[in-house]
Amino acid sequence: MRLFFVKDFLDLVFPRNCLMCGRSLYDSEQNLCIVCKGTLPVTSYHLRPIDNDLCDKVKGLSTVGMVMAFLKFTKGGSSQKLLHQLKYRNKPQLGQELGLMYGKILNENGFSRFWDLIVPVPLHPLKQSRRGYNQSEKFGLGLSEALSVKFELSLVRGKFTETQTQKSRLERMYNVDDVFQIAPYSSITSKSILLVDDVMTTGATLSACANVLLANGAKNVDLVTIAAGG
Hey, CA dihedral for 218, 194, 45, 55, is it positive or negative? Predict the structure, then answer.
């Protein structure tokens, strides 16, 4: 009885609300209510992982295999709202929940057997210190749990880069040139790797990371992001 009282008190002082619609969450709900989960713009990239518009974006930039995204990104849409919560509203647990959700879809479609390792695109230490976490890392941890695939921080970011938001495809490529390195403790040699990030626009950052992994002994690299759009 005492535990129920404490829980009711905490819910009153620190209410748990859906990060999309704002309504109160049930105990079984984490960050999103079941209604909002049902309206997410989930893509079907996992049905055509080697022949889709995301593959076209990285063509000529890197020799990766499959390219997929969980959600379709649209300005002002639910995917952008979720990314804003994840990146700027101190909601690291949201990234892990999204990873679990997409990992379940991938697992149900037989993808877990394709990878030996899940690796996130790293943030610069200064940016990660300011934010408190790497949102791509949280997404990757959720995928790792759902797929039962090992997670490793195999990449490090060597220099601070300007924001990619307003840059062209060519400018983005130059902006991430020679930015990423292999972590000294990495175990990527001869491994099939799933490289994960939060959002894919031109594919320049993911391609740069994939090229470093492949140049340092990875067997092959596939790409997955939380969202992707134009």
Answer: negative
